[in-house]
Amino acid sequence: DIQMTQSPSSLSASVGDRVTITCRASQSISSYLNWYQQKPGKAPKLLIYAASSLQSGVPSRFSGSGSGTDFTLTISSLQPEDFATYYCQQSYSTPQTFGQGTRLEIK
Amino acid sequence: QVQLVQSGAEVKKPGASVKVSCKASGYTFTSYGISWVRQAPGQGLEWMGWISAYNGNTNYAQKLQGRVTMTTDTSTSTAYMELRSLRSDDTAVYYCARDLGQLEPGTNDYWGQGTLVTVSS
Predict the structure, then answer these.
(1) Are A101 and B44 inside 8 Å of each other by CB?
(2) Is the pLDDT of residue B102 over 90?
(3) Which are the contacts of B42, defined by CB distance < 8 A and separation ≥ 6?
(4) Band of residue B101 on the pLDDT scale cut at 50, 70, 90
(5) Among B24, B38, B107, B109, which is least packed, fewest CB within 10 Å?
(6) How many CB pairs under 8 A join A and B?
């Protein structure tokens, strides 16, 4: 199975900050990398697919980059509604696997 | 608009089975797949498997092989996930998600609201 490792596991930031979350795969997954946002008690929401493509309806302050084994999710200017947990997921091979999550908290 | 509506919460005893439904609307059901993902309390996301709504092909997580069955009813645009021989560590919220992969697992773009399955004696 491909292991996905996110860093950091948690992060405190302020409204307006620029934030970057990293995801590393245990082997090359090309660009088969998705990012999801999850708020407490809610289903995950797709933000970025294929490493850098913005899902329809997602604000442009979210962006993704990377290929191979190293990927990043960047939020250019944090908004109050962005405080949530973020997961990366590889869809390169089955079983699809998720990172352990990054909890983004208000400083 | 795309919607996936799941069945309600379940409480089961160890050793029992549970079957969760996921009714899709707002898109052509057979043009996509359905993935199932679960989340134990306070934990991360775990991929359980995928089914093609086009041809019924499945791909299950190895750890669940033999205990899980995913099916679809194209006449009602509904997907089902049955998990047997339940254990306490199967307690989780179970999500269905539309999968962009019609013929193989891909990206999940729309998700159901989740179904809490509690396994307790």
Answers:
(1) yes
(2) no
(3) none
(4) confident
(5) B109
(6) 53
